Amino acid sequence: MDPINRGSEEYGHDDDGQAPRPRPPRDPLAADLIQHKPVLARTVRLVTGEFLLTVNPVDGSEIENCPPHERPQPPVKHGAAERAELARAAQPPVPPGPAQPRLPLLERQEERERLVRLLARGRSVRLTGPSGSGRTVLLDAVADDCADLAPDGVVRLCGYRRTASDLLYDLFTAVYDAPLHRPDREELLRLVHEIGAVVVLDDAEIGGGALDELLDATPECAFVIAATPDIPAPSAHALLEEVVLGGLDRSGGLELLERAVGRVLTEDESNWAGDLWFESEGLPLRFIQAGALLRQRDRLQASEEAFDDYGVFQEAPSDAHFESGDGHDLPLPSLAEGAAPAALLASRLSDSARATLRFAVALGGEVPHQAHLPALVGDTHADAALAELAASALVSPVGTRYRLAAGVRAQLEASGYADTLQESAQTAAQHYTWWAGHPSVTPERVCAEAEALLAALDVLVPVTTAPQDEEEESVSVQLARTAAPAFAAGLNWSAWERVLRFGVEASELAEDVGEQAYFHHELGVLALCGHQLDRARAELDASVGMRGALADKRGTTAGRRALALVADRSGTLQILGGRTAAGEEVPDARHEESMSPPGGVPAAFSATALSGDTVTVLALPPGSGAPAARRQGVAGRLVTGTRRNLVAAGAGALLVAVLGTVVTLGATSDHKNNDIPSERVGVNPSATPGSQDDSLGADKAKKGDDSAPSAVAKPTDPGPDGTYGTSDDPTPPAEATTGHQPSGEPSGTHTTSGKPSKSATSKPSKSSTGKPSPTGTKTSSGSPSPTGTKTGSPSASASPSATTPTAPATSDSASGPVSSSAPVTTSADVPAGSAPVGTGVATTGSGTAV
Questions:
Q1: What is each CA distance from 260 to 140, 266, 280, 811, in whole angstroms?
Q2: Which CATH class is domain 340-419?
Q3: Which residue, 552, 645, 556, is CA-closest to 605?
Q4: Rounded-to-integer distance, Cα 99 and Cα 548, Å
Q5: In what order do the strands lie in the sheet with 51-55?
Q6: Per-residue pLDDT tens for 415-437?
Q7: Alpha helix (H) ranges present in 469-552?
Q8: How many Cα atoms occupy the beta-carbon half-sphere of 584 within 13 Å?
Q9: pTM recorded for the entire structure
Q10: Radius of gyration (Cα) for the chain, nearest Å?
Q11: Which fold has domain 76-246?
Q12: For residue range 735-759, what is the model confidence (pLDDT) as tens digits?
């Protein structure tokens, strides 16, 4: 779809069966009044290493562990036809208009043959030469000669502003077919290790250890690396042959100049070319530019009728003489103009070409693609300006794009082309913001213009200020916000990181907290993809804090999910304001009113805190009390539990340890003041086995009475403090259920299949008069009733409650009366006998808590 003219393939116009409405004629003045349908956010899902990354331009990218069904197939190598298509796509675009003649490669035959021989033997070569020495032309010839040397063919790479890691990913993309797949470092090294190709690397900017890293990762590849002398040299142990490329000799320079002009030089021109050769040290670029100067001079000396044929030259200086024959000839350029010809060449170009040069100077030397020139310049035929610049040798190819040739930018800046630097950068930024956000523009096309976009941000970000109007947005923030998801989806993550850095700085200067939070979130996700956990945690923490202050619920959720993944990868627990990194609430102390988790509280993770008359029990999350988990202990639970249980168990274990220490200190301390109700201790002694039977001595009916029957611990009515006794048998006592005791049976006797009943623990309770009762029950008269008689043993005396029915027990606890007929449970539903070794028993005036 055309980004400008909306055609029939516009979505959102469903046919409802009626005749289509006639569209009104388009009025350019009313174009902004048309209600356009909102554009859907373009989300892209890609796999990077072990993660599944969803690039979301609205709320921020979402990252998660890649499910097995989302894992891509192993990458496969391109075939011969696909490699040829990729090689054509790697070339810079051909300028519109007539094809320019291709200049021959002069005086480079020896270097060409040497390079081919070394590459055929599998040796890597570093080609060193100054800018303008013809390195790119020589590499093109060598690539043609080595097309059949390696099984994976020839791979052309551009090293301009690329690191060793970037070049490895570029090599992987050029050889393997893996759409929307970015392997991690380990997988990348494994895949590039299997590549066998001749790699032609132009404009390399790496050396030393970085170059060693590139060569060590690709042992089956033979490299020819072109670099300038200012690039760091390879290390001493690098297996690289060095080839130095110098300038042309005098005869070679004159021949190249004649080829560029297209005719034989005159004597004056030959003398002028000799002086130029001495000044330029024989660099081929200077002779090509000098040939452009002579061609312009020839056109200016042509007859006046030629201007009607070449309308593009009608803006030539009015004081120039265009007489043919014996008329006044234009003088030859001076030696200074020949050595620095950019200003003179530009003055004789069209208005569109000069405007393009101003944009190139503002963008740091990057020439926008020819498709953008009509919109930037404001001329529908401005795309032809690229052909003028290329014919004048003012631009040179770099990878798939064009840049100003060596030394041209400095010469144009000295001539006043940088006077409108910020205005040109502002116009380019506004255009690229609209273009990169259009739904018809693919991420790959945005990545192709990455350097121009970043150059515009480099100019505008330092001068960004807070907008005066609240509805106005900063251009630099908008451009960074629009380009960032496109770079991420296009797998140009080096440009993605750079634009995010620009975005953070621009949003901070513009005082836009929301956009600043977005850029911090994306930086955190990018760091997580690179397994930089500390950096990811810092960026995501900053983003979550900012979005929390702005009440951005969706953005905060996305940040917390990413933080949870960081915590999972690092194996640490992160708590933010009482919540985990994923936004889960940290398990806190549960009071007696709260519901106990299903299955009870595991003994290994339970603790009791005593504070006055309140019993506080710490519990694990639901489902953590399974028998298998209790058998496994803490380590097993942390391994087999879910991530949510892992967070809750860690926080709960920490609180249990602290509160357990407090409880132990409070239980073992020597309290002098016994007047405090919460400090009083019951009068009954500790439970110890008796000497005559297996009952407990503390369960005697009277102190010192060894003949008293042992007490059978069973659930009883709540005492004045609302606590219950404990028993292995949850069945309520008979007198509490029926209200009377069968004749002939002693009060409190509990018969089970004719066998004696035993209890591991017993707990005294108080009667209504405040005196302890051996059974923990109270009768209507408030007197204790002896219990604990073994089955089949006659009672020494009849119990008063044997014939008198007891009244329903009442409780003065805060929860109101409790029926004694219902099954009795503790507030935490702790299973009997589940206390671990070392668990103490602390008592207060209101009861006992285990």
A1: 19, 14, 17, 111
A2: mainly alpha
A3: 645
A4: 59
A5: 62-65, 51-55, 44-48, 181-182
A6: 999 999 999 999 999 999 999 99
A7: 475-489, 493-509, 513-529, 533-549
A8: 21
A9: 0.65
A10: 44
A11: Rossmann fold (3.40.50)
A12: 443 444 444 444 443 433 444 444 4
